[in-house]
From TrEMBL:
InterPro entries listed in its UniProt record: ABC_transporter-like_ATP-bd, P-loop_NTPase
Keywords on record: ATP-binding, Nucleotide-binding
Top-level taxon of origin: Bacteria
GO MF entry, a single one: ATP binding
Entry keyword Membrane: no
ABC transporter domain residues: 3-59
Protein name: ATP-binding cassette domain-containing protein
Length: 61
């Protein structure tokens, strides 16, 4: 998946399609996964770098 810089994205889909898992990986809550996350062609780790660019909002209060 590729995203355009300075854009905001909303991830929607049916129950069980992986939305929460993707959000948890991007937010750094899940670190054991296949593949990599890169920003501007630089691989980033699930650490403080990700917290600067990803926000996670849970739908449950």
């Amino acid at each position: 998946m590729s995203l355009i810089k300075n854009k905001k994205y909303l991830i929607i889909g049916p129950s069980g399609s992986g939305k929460s898992t993707l959000a948890n990986v991007l937010a750094g809550f899940i670190t054991n996964f296949d593949g990599e996350i890169s920003v501007d062609d630089q691989v980033v780790n699930a650490n403080d770098q990700m917290f600067d660019i990803v926000a996670y909002v849970n739908q449950s209060p």
